[in-house]
Amino acid sequence: QVRGTHPDCSVVLHFQKREAECLERIRSESQTPAPPGQEGCPTEWDGVSCWPALPLGQSRAVACPEILNVFKKSKGLIQRNCTEWGWSPPSPPYHSTCQLETLGSNNDTEAKARHFVTMKVLYTCGYSTSLAALLLAIGIFSCFRKLHCTRNSIHIHFFTSFVLRGTAVFIKDSVLFSDESIDHCTMSTVTCKAAITFFQYSVLANFYWLLVEGLYLQTLLLLTFTCDRSYTWGYILIGWGVPMATVGVWALTRLWYDNHGCWDDYSSLYWWVIKAPILLAIFVNFLIFLNVTRMLAQKIRCPDLSKSHKQQYLRLTKSTLLLIPLFGVHYVVFALFPEHVGVDARLYFELVLGSYQGFLVALLYCFLNGEVQAEIRRNWGTWQRSMESNIFNLATQDFTA
Fold it and tell me: CA neighbours within 13 Å on the CB side: how many for 361?
């Protein structure tokens, strides 16, 4: 999935939090003025550190702030004195004591910016390709009546979840990053929160419709002679209903207890309201993966099973069993580490490779599906014969006239 909080934003938000704590301390101290004769320097925020109140003539030293290894680990201290004219300037200055990690030169910054631009172009192409392929696949399944069945209906819902996910990424980018003059780290508008909420819903729906694909395959193998239409509404409830309820709980929780920023800070404890259901879906899908593999081995060895049933099982199983580990493995791996670890790898997997997942799904379930190919060829042949017949009739009429 796309990570909304860039590491630079984490630094900004860290200092904003420290500033808010310091300002709150200043407000509380202002309500209880110091006794006469004990005046000194009041608590002050200098943009980096909070300096507690100090009596006149004394000094205080603080260490360099440590946030995400942005600053080098320096044993030096910054000192300030309380004089009759107030706080003295930091000595030595922050820039000399708390050196930033070496970035080399402006060329490195420009290279990093070009890297993110390149990555955005790649995932934009990926999601555009996926959207085009998915919409074409949905059109194929919807137009040909012989392809109307519960299995393909589930595929259409699965495709739709990918369409929503790609659309949500474009909406989120347009809201958060379209205007470079806006500080997206501190943006806290209803529009950006709605965009993030829609994005989280589309991601959850994506994982739960993959779970439905696994559940359907398992049901198909377990209950061969049961009408699968009776389970359709249950699948819809799992695929769209569970994500809706989860995102609703998450949105209300953020609104009441953590309503700051644009709700895209994944370091928040409330992020587990989204992460836990996704991990649950992946875990259940993994169990289904093992169980279906076991059942399929038994079914294929069964001498009473007809050849057509074997081909049907193999065709559907081949696609579903490939997708279950493909979609879940990287998410589980990254879920075990803090959000600031492996940022580049996360961005690559979730943005670049993840953007082509929809195309892969359309390819496996639709374009490489023998049933779909046969139906397209049949309709293409019918259309060609119809066109040839119309042309022959027109030529005959012209000749007889």
Answer: 37
* pLDDT per residue as tens digits for the range 274-300: 989 998 998 888 888 888 878 777 766
Per the CB < 8 A criterion, the answer to whether 192 and 15 are in contact is no
Rounded Cα–Cα distance for residues 395 and 401 (Å) = 10
Report the relative pairing of strands 50-51 and 40-41 from DSSP bridges.
unpaired
10 Å Cβ neighbour count for 148?
12
pLDDT value at position 134? 96
Angstrom distance (rounded) from CA 232 to CA 124? 34
Residue 49 region by backbone torsions, left for phi larger than 0, else alpha for psi between -120 and 50, else beta: beta
Q: How far apart are CA 53 and CA 26, in angstroms?
A: 9
**CA–CA gap between residue 370 and residue 377 (Å, rounded):** 10
Q: Tell me, what's the pLDDT at 302?
A: 66
Instruction: Kindly state whether residue 102 falls inside one of the protein's structural domains.
Output: no
Do 31 and 127 reside in the same domain of the chain?
no
pTM: 0.70
Tokens 């708390």, residue located:
98
Q: What is the CATH number of the domain that holds 59?
A: 4.10.1240.10
326 domain residue, yes or no: yes
- The answer on 128 and 66 residing in a single domain is no
54-93: per-residue pLDDT in tens?
888 888 888 877 664 455 555 668 889 998 888 988 888 8
Q: How far apart are CA 64 and CA 67, in angstroms?
A: 10
Tokens of 106: 């402006």
